[in-house]
Design brief:
The protein is mainly α and 215 residues long. It is 78% helix and 0% strand.
């Protein structure tokens, strides 16, 4: 243990590995040794080995929140976002991880990377409900908009605007198009009027306003 401390303090991580392997053989259920081994691997940019060490530790003993999040992030950085998302989903369900806005946003990002759009949108909607402003709802509205899910887009964008966002004019424009496609002329007209005050959106808003008049 003293020699391990010397190697870690001196950033001699390869030598620390040898000591840690011996310590793990003696105390395989000691979570600290597995964590130190993962750190030694990470410091040498051996992310695949760090992930393997943490997964083995997970099967040997109960890891804490930071360890579990590290496993999720390592799966993601190693190009396996679907595995990371599924682990995170399971640990949230069982209560091993708390369903905070941060963990839900991470879950959204992982599902999004894995091209699992349904679970991604569900995670983002839960995260948005915990936010103090409407930025997450704005992102949710944009994603529904891209998928031509007009009712969901309209609902999310309306909530985003009520809670407050930076891109107000763009959100009003998107809301107008979504409402137009839902057959909600009143909401569409109001949204286009507000969006038209932004000179950068003038032409495209005018186009949709004309379509609204002749519909």
């Amino acid at each position: 243990r003293v020699l391990l401390a010397v190697y870690l303090d001196g950033k001699q991580y390869r030598k620390a590995e040898t000591i840690l392997h011996s310590l793990i053989e003696c105390e395989p259920d000691n979570r600290s040794w597995w964590n130190y081994l993962a750190v030694a691997y990470l410091e040498q940019e051996k992310e695949d080995k760090a992930l393997a060490a943490l997964v083995l530790a997970h099967h040997r003993s109960q890891l804490d929140t930071d360890d579990l999040m590290r496993i999720v992030q390592l799966y993601s950085s190693n190009g396996i976002p679907e595995k990371a998302a599924r682990l995170l989903r399971d640990w949230l369900k069982t209560g091993r991880l708390e369903a905070t806005r941060q963990t839900l946003k991470l879950q959204f990002e992982l599902w999004h990377l894995a091209c699992e759009h349904g679970p991604a949108l569900q995670a983002l909607e839960k995260a948005a409900s915990m936010a103090e402003n409407g930025e997450d709802y704005y992102l949710l509205g944009c994603l529904h908009f891209e998928r031509n899910q007009w009712q969901q887009a309209r609902h999310a964008l309306q909530r985003a605007l009520r809670l407050g966002i930076k891109e107000k004019a763009k959100a009003q424009y998107l809301l107008g198009v979504a409402a137009f496609n839902c057959g909600d002329r009143h909401t569409a007209q109001q949204a286009f009027e507000k969006a038209s005050k932004n000179p950068e959106l003038g032409k495209v808003v005018a186009y949709w306003s004309d379509r609204l008049q002749f519909r």
